[in-house]
Design goal:
The chain contains seven helices and six strands; from the N terminus they run ββαββββαααααα. By secondary structure, it is mostly helical. It has a two-stranded antiparallel ribbon with strand order 1-2. Strand 1 and strand 2 form a beta hairpin. Helix 3 packs parallel to helix 5. The protein starts with a strand and ends in an 11-residue tail after the last helix.
Length: 196
């Protein structure tokens, strides 16, 4: 995959062919040689016994695997738990606190724009990757969304959130994660057409 500021090399291999896979990655990456930053993450199931991933030789540099990487704004850890990403989105509460101090000087439209720029964009970016998260992580994301909605309408923390979300045309995040996943699946149903 090649993006404007990101080049990635993926290889899937059988554990018995690990040495050949590492040699293949080393050969490919040494041909590129124009990396601004090189990181390697070895993704495996949390149910497998933990093995130490070998380092990869890139030119003269010895690149050691890291626990997690940031890829196009998404924090991916080595077991795909998405906990690093949820923690990063959770830090949006700090931006909300800053915005709440300015709220009395802003009208509703300006507040909506700022909340969308600093909070909603974090919640919505790649949210289909968050499908199936544990309830505790969904609850953290839901708290960020609820706090943002309360800030926009000027509600207090004790005010019930459902009417506020309904007025702002927002859903509970658990529902919208499910909706995002389902909407990605609908066009690929057998017999359905992408063009109507």
């Amino acid at each position: 995959m090649v993006y404007a500021d990101d080049t990635q090399v993926y290889i899937m291999f059988d554990p018995s062919a690990r040495k050949q896979a590492i040699a293949s990655i080393e050969a490919c990456v040494s041909d590129i040689r124009a990396w601004a930053k090189t990181e390697i993450v070895h993704i495996s199931s949390r149910f497998r016994s933990k093995t130490t991933a070998p380092s990869v030789q890139v030119g003269t540099a010895d690149i050691k695997p890291v626990e997690g990487v940031r890829d196009l704004g998404v924090f991916i850890d080595n077991q795909l738990t998405m906990s690093n990403h949820v923690s990063n989105v959770w830090t949006a509460l700090y931006a909300l606190r800053s915005l709440s101090q300015l709220r009395k000087y802003l009208d509703k439209t300006t507040t909506e724009h700022l909340v969308h720029a600093f909070i909603s964009s974090r919640l919505d970016s790649c949210n289909c990757l968050l499908y199936g998260l544990p309830d505790a992580d969904i609850a953290k994301l839901q708290r960020v969304q609820n706090s943002a909605a309360r800030l926009v309408v000027g509600a207090r923390r004790r005010d019930h959130i459902q009417p506020i979300l309904r007025d702002l045309h927002l859903h509970q995040k658990a529902d919208s994660f499910q909706d995002a996943f389902v909407s990605l699946q609908i066009p690929f149903k057998p017999g359905s057409s992408l063009h109507k």
